[in-house]
Amino acid sequence: MPVIILAGDEEFELSRRVSQLKSTLISESWLSMNFVRLTNPGLPTIIEAAASLPFGEGNRLVLIDRCDLFTKRRTKDGAMLAKASAKSSKESDVSPEAFASALAGVYERTYLVFACPYNFDSTLRLSKAAAKSAELEQFQKEKHFPGSKNPKLETWCRKEAKRFGATLDDDAIDYLLEGAEADLRQISSEIQKAAVAILPETHISLKTIVELSPHHSHVFALADYWLNNQKVESLLSLSELLKQQNAMPVIAALQTMLSKWIKIKVLAEDMNESSSLAVGRKELPIPELAKRVAFELKLMPFSVERDLKRLNRHSSETLIGKRLELERLEFLIKSGQVPDKHALELFVLH
After folding, report:
1. Rounded Cα gap, residues 81 and 13, in angstroms
2. Separation between Cα atoms, residue 117 and residue 111, nearest integer Å
3. φ and ψ of 74, to 5 deg
4. How confident is the model over 252-295, as pLDDT tens digits?
5. How far is CA 217 from the centre of its chain?
6. Would you list the DSSP string of 276-332?
7. What is the value of pTM for the model shown?
8. Among residues 83, 100, 97, which one has the least CA distance to residue 40?
9. Which of 87, 118, 147, 174 has the fewest Cβ atoms surrounding its Cβ within 10 A?
């Protein structure tokens, strides 16, 4: 089907699916001509892209990246990071019917792929319009609670090890899930590192994982020092982390934490504001606030309460700014403009 919607908050599996579609649908020789990436464009731009045709032989793939058309929470997560950048004023003139008609008319060799890092809301008018022509693939993040078992995540770890030609101890799986808080991107990186390290052997033991993969709690320590503005301790913790691994897993872990904290803080601020308007009380008690936020985000209340206390001195705007700064520093590292250690030092000091 030429129109595909990839939706869900499990960003790693979603991005992997995008890469798979790109590699299988587009001829390598025509890649520069037949692959187009548009970042959260307005409806008129999408409709125009849907009418495009492939060059030469093979298919054309138009990727609508970080699309927020099919979720109500457009300003609670990724879109809010950019302060909900203004869409075209003409977008409001595009009806769901016109949108549905454009998707239905996509040429058979043009693939329109919506990559939506949010869970799909089937009640929205645009969602209903798109569902008439699109194939929906959902990538919802699995919840993991320390000390509990999650067969789906455990099976995923075993399959991931198999991708790298290895097998995993059950204890190693538990260690990875707890240490990385079920961050699949981080876990995949650690499994790949271990699979390479044990060659020509193929079985990854808990001992190997412990030696190669510092527990995620070290990153939590770094985050706690940063949240408390303990700059000396932050630098020492960062130095210790970078002795054991490169910067990218640390950045990935910090991004995951910041994304979660932003969601929690935005909801908490909104609820406190609503409470203040309704009953004249400045803020809700943290235990009560934690219960309400946990219900909205489907998290454990004790975990949310712990995070609210840690975030007490930081506003959502501050956290959003730090997330954007981290993304900018990651780009500078990947493009070779700034050494990874220097970039992370800048992050924790400012």
Report:
1. 22
2. 19
3. -70, -25
4. 878 888 888 999 999 999 888 877 655 555 678 888 888 888 88
5. 20
6. HHHHS-S---HHHHHHHHHHHHT--HHHHHHHHHHTTT--HHHHHHHHHHHHHHHHH
7. 0.63
8. 83
9. 147
